[in-house]
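Structural prep section.
Before we set up the soaks we want a predicted structure of the protein with phosphoric acid mono(formamide)ester in place, mainly to decide which crystallisation condition to try first. Input record follows.
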Amino acid sequence: MQTDLRGRDLITTQEWTRDEIDTLLEVAWDLKRRRATGEPHALLRDRVLAMLFFFSSTRTRISFEAGMAQLGGHAQFIESQTTQISHGDTAKEIGEIVGRYADGIAIRQCDWAIGNRYIRDVAEASRVPVLNMQCDVYHPFQILADLMTIMERFGRDLRGRTMNVSWAYAASYQKPISVPQSLILLMSRFGMNLRLTHPPEYKLMPDILQQAQDNVRQHGGSLEMIDDFDAGFRGADILYPKSWGALLTTDDDEESARIGQQYTDWISDEGRMALAQQHAVYMHCLPADRNVEVTDGVIDGPQSIVYDEAENRLHVQKAAMALTMS
Ligand code: CP
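Run finished without errors. Recording the C-alpha cells verbatim:
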C-alpha cells in the first residue's frame, strides 16, 4: 500500500503504478463503508477543489462536488465561459493562479487534440494536484469506478475474465473516445481477456493500443480486436458497449454521423445479452442513447450495473482527493 500520494496529478491511470491504484481502491472501499455507516470522514477540512468545466456534465460535477463536501472541504464549480479564458487567460496562468487559491484543480476539457494538452499545461504550472475529469484521450475516474464495480461483482482477482469493450451506435452526438481508451489501458493491467470490438472506422489511437498491448505483456491476459458486434458478446463476462466518434477517421462531425448510419444495428439488446455468459453484467458510463445504443430492457434489466458504476464515481474520486490533496 502506498502512503505518499500527496501532490500527485491523476491525468491517466498509466501514470500510477498498480500498487498505487490498489491503494486508491482500498481507500475508496473504506470511504464507501464510512459513508454507508454514517461515520464522519472530514479528511479535507477547509480544503478547496477548483473544478473547471469546458464541457457539460451530470455525474462528474455532482459526484466531485458531493465528495468534497463529504470530506469537509468545498468544491468550486467553474464553467469556462464565465471566466476570462476566452479573453486570454492561458493554461499556465490558470495553473499558477488557481493553484495559489485552491488545494486541487480538476478539469474537464474534451476538445479533440486540445483537452489533454491543456490539462498537462495547467498541471505543469500548478503547485497543487491536477485531476483529469475527462479529456479527449482519457477519462480516468470513470474507469477507476468501473474497475471498482467489476471487482465488487467478480472479486479482486480478475484473471481469466472476458471483458468486451465495444462500439455501439448512437445518434445524439459524436461521443469522445476517452472511455474505451481508458478502459483498455486500465483493464489490461489486471490479467483480463479483453476484446476491443468496433467497425473499421472507429479505431482508437495507435499509441493507446500499444500501451494496452505492453500492459498485457507485463500483466498477462490478452487483447483481441474484433469487428463483429455479436462476436464481442459471445461468452463474455463483462459487456461495455458504448458509442464513440470516428475521430481517427474524420474530424468532421457530419461525416462521422454518416459513417455511423451504416451500423445502426449495433444496439445492445436482449438477444445480444443472451450470447454472453448467464452471469454477465452490462456496463455503460452514461449518458446512453436509450433504444438506439441500448434497449430499455437491457439498461434497466437485471444484468445492468450502470447505477453502481455511477455511484462508485463518488467513492474513487473521494479516495483520489483524500490521497492527493491532504
Ligand atoms: N460518465 C460521465 O462522465 O458522466 P457525465 O458526463 O455526466 O459527467
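Observations: The longest strand covers residues 48-53.
Flagged for discussion at group meeting.
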